[in-house]
Design brief:
The protein is mainly β and 244 residues long. It is 5% helix and 56% strand. The radius of gyration is 19 Å and the shape is globular.
Length: 244
């Protein structure tokens, strides 16, 4: 059940995103995501160190993406650096994941060089298992390509599936609670810190059998006119998954 805002917006937004595999935060089905045709070669230097090189042809080989990622372990943290050319723009970046006392700490970021104006993006997150049944996380996302003022939002690029986010700063909070050995409840709040809009996404999943899951949830969006999540439809859904 959805309101009258065009659902095609969300469908098209799923086609863009990070370097190769697009991820939309409002997509309720995160088990499977859009892929990319690519060739990859990975060389292992040891148990925790490797180098991977990828080649992704596009537009009948008239343009291509190429990149390399070096990963290793340092002081109980997994760290990596990457570089490449994607959409004809040079990109450098990296990520890390490890522990902060008893919590999990991770982050990732890239800098994309567009003419004389480098654009940076990064995410920093912290997660914690409070009890055997309760898990929670919080993430901060900075989008250097976005705008702080909604009047400057590039909505046309959003509609053309060139970008996923309009603003610069976001925060997401998520919690998972085991109601029963077969029933999990997940709730997520994603907020735009620049214009105050946000969406709330609750979901309950029931494991019918070892390979069949049934879930129900929704997407409840809030925001004043022309704010980012004002464009999102409010919706509810039922989803079944069969693993084989």
């Amino acid at each position: 059940i959805v309101d009258d805002i065009d659902l095609e917006l969300l469908k098209r937004r799923r086609q863009s995103g990070n370097v190769l595999n697009p991820i939309n935060p409002a997509n309720f089905d995160k088990v499977e995501k859009d892929g990319a045709d690519a060739a990859a070669v990975k060389y292992y230097f040891g148990s925790f160190t490797d180098l991977e090189v990828i080649y992704n042809p596009e537009d009948n080989f008239r343009k291509s993406n190429v990149g390399a990622r070096f990963r290793t372990n340092f002081a109980e943290y997994d760290v990596s650096v990457l570089c490449g050319v994607f959409d004809r723009k040079a990109v450098i970046g990296g990520d890390f994941a490890g522990n902060l006392f008893t919590a999990g700490l991770r982050g990732e970021g890239i800098v994309r060089f567009e003419k004389d104006n480098p654009v940076e993006r990064y995410i920093v997150g912290l997660d914690y298992q409070f009890t055997p049944k309760l898990y929670a996380l919080i993430e901060y996302h900075f989008n250097g390509e976005g705008k702080s003022n909604r009047s400057s939002y590039d909505v046309q690029r959003l509609l053309d599936a060139e970008i996923l986010n309009l603003a610069r700063q976001y925060i997401a909070v998520s919690a998972t609670y085991q109601l029963h050995p077969l029933v999990m409840a997940v709730t997520t709040l994603n907020a735009n810190l620049d214009d105050g809009s946000r969406f709330f996404s609750p979901k309950v999943t029931y494991s019918i059998s070892a390979n069949i899951d049934l879930s129900a949830g929704g997407l409840l969006s809030y925001g004043s006119e022309q704010s980012e999540y004002w464009y999102y439809p409010t919706s509810i859904y039922v989803n079944g998954t069969l693993y084989f």
